[in-house]
């Protein structure tokens, strides 16, 4: 197991980077507003250095031990899910908490600006896909064969994996209802590179995450165009603020929900980015799978212990008819904004670091969680003070970070504020 712990000089550089971020915020943070982002989007494209991608994922073929099994996907109560939807629909976080986003987005400037143009161009193209609806009615097709062709095409375009789930309006935000192209959601996943993720929290890791989102959208646009070329309707959704893709990832059998609130795929844990394409193509559905991930999480709990904000619960609770971990966003978000995106919960996850196959293999051999209690997995360098935190030790979060003076986030809010306060990143 490689230890990604930085040298002392490396930690000084990490800490200095954050100080520079904060000192130059009044200059560069100002660019993260719609007026400037439109200008950045219209800049000429710079040559992109091609990245070596991890390649398509192999199907997960490990037998899951009985003691790790729970249920396929996630435990849900469909009647209570429906009742919650009818009572109040899910809201687009970016609209519901405009003032929070206006506070957070500029603090991302060092991670965001280098990839801003590429990301903005891809997101704009995704927003405009409905205009490219095909003129001809779609041909009849065999669903299983079509889904197979779609998956081959997705891999050819460089996506790590795709799955097909029924479209469900309960998991589209109220602000985006009615935009879909059909009754299916093609969930698309692109793996984020391994090494920079192990350096989280850092600006480098955040930049790689955003670059992966840009690449994901570029590949999804190609897949959308391919579906349209066959005569079907297809609409590429933006990864931000339209639907809850974690729900679709679980329903399409691409992974299960981890205690850190993220989709844990067997191949790369949550070290991947996802979004979706809605379509009327009669693709055969994939279904939820029990990979034993909830069983692993119950025995692991590393992210619960290592989260610097203490924002991850040790247990799942029913929320809107679904049993899941409910993260304390009020504690988490200031760290995400001020500590280079944080992402400690992704970095310390053994499924992310080693893959589920290795984790299950170790569990069968020794009954233990691979990497638990080791510095290689659990240790991280903390940008806000430049110190390394080994297992058993966590950073102390000062009050001005955990509750910044100008921070207005209200997790209880259910209705968006008026548009005048918008500071969106779109
Ligand atoms: S991003 Fe950081 S603060 Fe938020 S849940 Fe993960 S580890 Fe905790
Ligand atoms: S760190 Fe452990 S408990 Fe947390 S999501 Fe990963 S496997 Fe689950």
Word description of this protein:
There is one protein chain. The protein is of the alpha+beta class and 426 residues long. The chain has one domain. The protein has 19 helices and ten strands. The strands form four sheets. The chain has a four-stranded antiparallel sheet with strand order 1-2-6-3, with helices on both faces. Strands 4-5 form a two-stranded antiparallel sheet. Strand 7 and strand 8 form a beta hairpin. Helix 3 packs across helix 7 and helix 7 runs parallel beside helix 10. It is globular. The C terminus is likely disordered.
How many H/I helices?
Answer: 19
Strand order within the widest beta sheet: 1-2-6-3
Judged by helices, strands and strand pairing, the structural class is alpha+beta
Bound molecules: iron/sulfur cluster
* Helicity range: 40-55%
Poorly predicted residue ranges: 421-426
Measured between the Cα atoms of the first and last residue, the distance is: 40 Å
User: How many domains, in number, for the residues?
Assistant: 1
Tally the beta strands: 10
User: Which whole number gives the mean pLDDT?
Assistant: 91
Give a short account of the largest sheet. Answer: 4 strands, antiparallel
What is the 3D form?
globular
> What integer value in Å does the Rg equal?
21 Å
- % residues in beta strands: 5-15%
Query: How would you spell out the order of helices and strands?
Result: HHHHHHHHEEHHEHEEEHHEEHHHHHEEH
Feature tags:
426 residues; alpha+beta; four-stranded antiparallel β-sheet; two-stranded antiparallel sheet; 19 helices; 40% helix; globular; disordered C terminus; binds iron/sulfur cluster; 4Fe4S_Fe_S_CS; iron; 4Fe-4S ferredoxin-type domain-containing protein
């Amino acid at each position: 197991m490689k230890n990604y712990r930085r040298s002392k000089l490396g930690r000084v550089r990490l800490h200095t980077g954050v100080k520079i971020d904060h000192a130059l915020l009044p200059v560069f943070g100002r660019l993260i507003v719609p007026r400037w982002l439109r200008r950045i989007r219209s800049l000429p494209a710079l040559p992109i250095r091609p990245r070596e991608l991890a390649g398509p994922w192999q199907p997960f073929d490990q037998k899951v031990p009985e003691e790790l099994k729970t249920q396929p996907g996630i435990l849900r109560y469909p009647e209570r899910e429906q009742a919650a939807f009818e009572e109040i629909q899910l809201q687009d976080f970016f609209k519901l908490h405009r003032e929070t986003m206006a506070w957070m987005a500029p603090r991302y400037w060092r991670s965001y600006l280098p990839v801003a143009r590429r990301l903005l161009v891809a997101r704009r193209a995704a927003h405009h896909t409905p205009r490219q609806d095909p003129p001809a009615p779609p041909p009849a097709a065999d669903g299983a064969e079509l889904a197979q062709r779609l998956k081959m095409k997705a891999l050819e375009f460089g996506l790590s994996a795709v799955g097909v789930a029924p479209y469900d309006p309960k998991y589209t935000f109220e602000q985006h209802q009615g935009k879909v192209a059909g009754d299916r959601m093609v969930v698309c996943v692109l793996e984020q590179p391994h090494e920079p993720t192990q350096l989280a929290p850092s600006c480098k890791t955040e930049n790689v995450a955003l670059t992966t989102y840009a690449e994901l959208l570029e590949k999804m646009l190609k897949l959308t165009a391919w579906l349209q070329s066959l005569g079907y309707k297809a609409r590429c959704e933006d990864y931000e603020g339209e639907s809850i893709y974690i729900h679709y990832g679980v329903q399409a059998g691409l992974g299960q929900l981890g205690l850190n609130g993220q989709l844990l795929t067997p191949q790369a844990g949550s070290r991947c980015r996802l979004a979706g394409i809605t379509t009327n193509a009669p693709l055969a559905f994939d279904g939820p799978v029990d990979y034993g991930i909830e069983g692993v999480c119950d025995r692991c709990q590393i992210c619960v212990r290592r989260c610097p904000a203490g924002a991850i619960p040790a247990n799942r609770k029913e929320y809107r008819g679904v049993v899941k971990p409910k993260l304390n966003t009020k504690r988490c978000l200031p760290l995400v904004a001020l500590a280079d995106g944080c992402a400690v919960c992704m970095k310390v996850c053994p499924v992310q670091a080693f893959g589920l196959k290795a984790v299950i293999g170790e569990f069968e051999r020794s009954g233990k969680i691979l990497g638990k209690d080791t510095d290689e997995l659990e240790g991280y360098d903390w940008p806000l003070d430049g110190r390394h935190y080994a297992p058993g030790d966590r950073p102390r979060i000062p009050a001005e970070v955990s509750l910044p003076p100008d921070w207005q986030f209200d997790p209880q809010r259910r209705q968006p504020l008026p548009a005048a306060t918008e500071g969106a990143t779109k």
